[in-house]
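User: Show me a protein chain along with its predicted structure.
Assistant: Here is one chain, sequence first, then structure tokens.
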Amino acid sequence: MSTKKSVKTKTGIHQFLVATSSTQDSNAASLSATGDAQTENERETPFTEYRLYVINRAGTGEASYLLMKENFSTILSYRVHTETWRQTEGLQDFGVLVLGKWIYVLGGYHKVQGVCLDRVMRYEPRADQWSECRNMLVARCKFGVSVLAKKIFVCGGQRSDGKQTGSCEMYDPETDIWTKCGMLVAPRSDTVCAAYGQEVLCAGGFHNGKVHNNLWVYEQHTWQELDRHYPHMLPYSLQKCAVAAVKNTLYFIGGSSSKEQQVEEGSGEKVSVTMLRTERRMFSYTTQISAGDGHSKGAQLDLISPWNLKLPPMIHARQNAGAVTIGQKIHVVGGTSVETGDPVIKSEHFDLVRGTWHEDFVLKNCDVSNVSCLLVEVPKIPFKDRRIMQRLKWVMW
């Protein structure tokens, strides 16, 4: 029996109105700058906006976006629009993804309540409506999440007591049911979960005070190490890294690694301390390898190993960043430096054709310390309807 229920509220409508009113002028200016100015009659007709969303996962509730060209081919305007989602205010390290016409927000750590949540919400931009879905089986934060065969997979994470978990579960939106899907080989938090072909992979993460280099696959209802004739572990131990898919290749980007160091205490005794380091490295993983399978001049693949460790590093070291593939570029946005604690406001992209990194747009008026990137189609409200909604805003609030 489905537990979904609509939670469309005056607050949700208000958020949409504020976002619409604050961006409609800048949208028009952006379109004019690209030679796409519209007549009054054209503005009366709804059309689809293609958005690159940057979702804050640090508790501010911010959801910023840039407008894309049709079919997400490239960025149309670098003007940043920012909305506030009440549903994610005060919520940290939740999972977020796009499936169908909905954006799903799963779990997370609630700063005020001081506990992890099992709550699942979904947002439909087409109707500007939030709905509740059936709760996850386990409350958690800092977990991996991905989509395979129109189902959502949740892997590992951290519980309210601060301990890592190895439990995994799968959600079917058609039936609104969560089911268990095995246990990871070992507990992990801050892991990355990615759908790859017909498989789900779980890579890296944190457990027992260490960062790990595991690469596990979900096969026949069981999580296990890859059983192949080539290296099946990450070449480096990583947590909080970003991942981007390009055809049959996964790119692992940034994150943080750990290293044991001997530190002398005041008594003169040396103790072992785990030190974290923010990474600039990027490497890729491919299973279907053949001659000439490289994606760029700087990304020629080894014909024996699935790993390509010769990719150039990013310009800026970062963890908890968002990554998304747009055309022939991998865009990396936001994140934090472990060493300084500062957010990385300069985004950058990797040119898959040239094999080089380039700085991109800047997100300086919103919190980008911990973000996820999503590509979302949003039907645009007709101009006349926007004016009506503006009048409603002043009547109701």
